[in-house]
Fold each of these.
Amino acid sequence: MSQFNQNAKWRYATKKYDATRKVSAADLATLKEAINLSASSYGLQPYKVIFVENPELRAQLQPASWGQTQIVDASHLVVFANELNLGNEQIDAYFENLTQTRGITLENVQGYVDFMKGAINNIPMEIRNVWTAKQTYIALSNLMNAAAELKIDTTPMEGFDPQQYNEILGLNDKNLNAAVVCAIGYRHAEDDTQHYAKVRKAENDLFVTL
């Protein structure tokens, strides 16, 4: 069995964290790099990733998260916030980064610039915002897989009120929206969930070959 699959078998959605254990700065750097290396549509990375360490902020976020203890007990709370109303400004910033990184001029990629702007600006804004929110889940997956390799536990969470998160974290003023959350840290010895058998569909029920 591959190491990747072994890691996937090891991880589970941790219900109770050991609040005394913290993820090291070195491991946090590794996780952040894994997030930054995530694939995204057009390579735009249309989101911000917020590591909430402040205990007072996390205490405010807990009631907006159905009271779940992972919000305050995990080492860190990671909020993936998608960009709203993405348009030419973000696209221009992406190509400025691209040309500097690759040492080329804008003229070399102007055709792609025009194509991308035409394709994205033609999408209705409501659908565009859904699209950027979906991109956060790819980055979330990279975080979870990298964490499992480091034997760091994770809990991906959709059980929260995005509007309250946006208000508490000041995201509205930044044109951002809390799309998905992930607690990271170390499982508590008393978390019985870690001993449960992993429940998945049988392969013949999941996979279709045409």
Amino acid sequence: MRRHHPPRGLTLIELLLFIAVVGIALAAMLRVFVSATAASADPMIRRQQLAIAESLLREVQLMPFTWCDPEDANVLTATAAVVSASGCAAQVEGPGPEPGESRYGPAYFDNVSDYHGFSMTGISDLTGTAVSGLSGYSARVAVAAATLDTLTAASGDALQITVTVSGPDSSSVVLQGWRTRYAPQAPF
């Protein structure tokens, strides 16, 4: 007596269906890989923008925050942004740099408010030397009086610093920080 065994293997129709399903799945996976590869440079640009913004924000926050220009004789004792006995001897510190001051020298920014309105296209270090690979980026800084907890904007004791960095893909990163004045002045 012979036992009857069912045929083994695949039929032509089963094989064609398998190839079609695998082909569709591979096409979908390739589409995902292509879009992921095309967007893979974006995180690098974003990280670079963030690093530039953090560095510039830190630079501004580390500057003195005084009522008077830091070269004023009363810079450490002034209690108001006025030329008077209790204020500045000669020069009140206002928004933006004083004539001749620059981030790159020869007369350097010497106060937080000097950075108001500062911008650069192509990132440069403090000596004005372009940083390699960052020519497609730009940065700008705005400094404004701010309300911070119990400090009012009108008191002038708190500043909001906003740094905006644009990348080569036209995207932007905005970082904000604050700087407060210590009574009567911030030590140097």
